[in-house]
Automatic annotation (TrEMBL):
Originating organism: Streptomyces kronopolitis
Keywords per UniProt: Methyltransferase, Transferase
Protein name in the entry: Methyltransferase
Domain Methyltransferase: 38-130
GO BP field: methylation
Length: 243
């Protein structure tokens, strides 16, 4: 038995929010620190907003995610607003200085319709001039090629439980990659399998969606030190502004 709550706890163990040591987390932490109100779309377990509040952010902080088990962990902090829903469900408040999608959450937006509806809702949640910051893995780096059982990890999971975790890519169709994540006992006995499809948009396609939704590009980076996107970049990091 490995419940949704266990999976959410494992996510936090595997993906600690550490702006002091991880440049990706620092990138977002600086943006959050500069914004008086933040909507974190696909907030998951809420680690970014937990950190921000815990380190003195005094403005409005809202986390939005469709995953109930992840949100239940987020709700351990009650001085942040937590909302269950997808990006497309973001309320049209025209209120936020910053919206974020961290941890490649943007790649969960798979269909054109979902992308359009999500971007429209995020834009409507932002005040005029508000920023939307997110990253998507650059397809040229083919990150999914490392998502296979030969990269399995042995680790100590929630409640000190010894675990083995690995990924397996089922299909690569156009810009969609479908893969499973397996959580198992150390001897390989499977506890749970989660299937995910992620979209790997090219830069030009991404920018068409952003422009059509009413965003202008403010910053575009290929790494977390704000270097340009090059033929070697693994990330497409975007800071867009609501027109
Ligand atoms: C890899 S996790 C990233 C979580 C968190 N942002 C982080 O940096 O650790 C992706 C998150 O996106 C959420 N998600 C999936 N589809 C979504 C959608 N349509 N709108 C908003 N969030 C979504 C998932 O529930 C999950 O919590």
């Amino acid at each position: 038995m490995f419940s949704d709550a266990d999976a959410a706890a494992l996510y936090d163990l595997l993906n600690p929010w550490e702006p002091m040591s991880r440049s990706s987390d620092r990138f977002y932490d600086e943006l959050v620190g500069d914004a008086d109100s933040v909507l974190d779309v696909g907030c998951g377990t809420g680690a970014m907003l937990h950190w921000a509040r815990g380190h003195g952010h005094s403005g409005r902080l809202v986390g939005l995610d469709p995953d109930r088990a992840a949100l239940a962990r987020a709700r351990r902090r009650t001085d942040v607003e937590w909302v269950e829903g997808t990006a497309a469900d973001a309320a049209p408040e025209a209120a936020f200085a910053l919206a974020t999608m961290t941890g490649h959450a943007f790649q969960c937006l798979v269909t054109d319709e979902e992308l359009r509806a999500s971007l429209a809702a995020i834009r409507a949640a932002l005040r005029s001039g508000g920023r939307f910051a997110f990253e998507t893995r650059h397809p040229q780096a083919r990150a999914w090629q490392d998502w296979n059982p030969s990269h399995a990890r042995e680790l100590t999971g929630p409640a000190g439980r010894a675990l083995r975790v690995w990924h397996h890519v089922e299909s690569v169709t156009g810009d969609l990659v479908t893969f499973t994540g397996t959580t198992a006992e150390p001897d390989g006995r499977v506890l749970r399998v989660d299937r995910t499809t992620l979209r790997f948009l090219e830069v030009a396609a991404l920018d068409e969606f952003l422009a059509a939704a009413g965003f202008v590009l403010e910053g575009r980076y290929g790494d977390w030190d704000r270097g340009p996107v090059t033929a070697a970049s693994r990330e497409i990091i975007t800071v867009a502004r609501r027109m």
